[in-house]
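Fold it.
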Amino acid sequence: MRAARITAYGPIDTLRVEEVDDPVVGPGEVLVDIAAAAVNYPDLLIMSGGYQVRWPLPLIPGSEFAGTVRAVGPGVTGVTTGDRVAGSVAVGAFAERIAVPAAGLWPVPAEASLAEAAAFRVTYLTAYHALRSVAEVRPGAQVVVLGAAGGVGLAAVDVAVALGARVIAAVSSPKKAAVCRARGAHETIDYSHEDLKERIKQLTGGGADVVIDPVGGPYSEPALRATAWGGRFVCLGFASSQIPAIPLNLVLLKGVLLCGMEIRTFAEHRPQDARRDEAELAEHFRSGRLRPYIGRRYPLEKVADALRAVSERKVIGKLVIVMNDG
């Protein structure tokens, strides 16, 4: 099979698409013919060696995939050859096939494409945990999303709208603002030329109830300063590659709850909330209320171009790698 693989940690250019052995299916596992795999910012960190965990080399990056079950290993029940499934892994998705535990897969409804299924779970579950469980968003809450046109950002816009919030999308261009409005954002802020703090205060009438921040960098502190007293500021990551230094006196004076949420450990520490969120999110996807915005599709041979677009923050929504006719 073909796969995109690195043999040493380093920049995107170290990635090579080459022929590798098919994975072997073990007990409790299934072999999936991958039709589509989504690109995420952590893929870049894993490739560079900058992620919290390192995997043995050589490795195939990619964490989200969807496709068709090709073979079933011993002891597997509830999954059969030909089923349309999706799943997420730490590494291994930028390939034509993958062997994964059957228990970690979820069925793809006939109404959804495999590309949509591949692009859905990680970003939308991140957004759902952040808004539903951490920020405890209620209908009518005023929610500001930073980096709102990116993968996690646009998922947060969609989820906040679904939860009945009034959504303000902060972006860096008119094109990105237009996409956010089309997805249901009530207001937009272009922080490439607008004062983020002042515009949030103007649009909210004094301050945001919730700020969702997957970006970090120079935007975090102005957004924190524009929260209402007792608001919630949820940090989801640092797509800007800059970790901001937040003056804690702001947290003290504004009574803000400053929270972090990382999808890799959320279920471990809040298992009941995680199970509830996953069930609710699956129903949103099954019913069609939530679907990801796919900004562009790339063939496997162009996976480096997709990763480069993510690293340069040129992405609207999610980018998807398609295999063959995926």
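The chain is about 30% helix and 25% strand.
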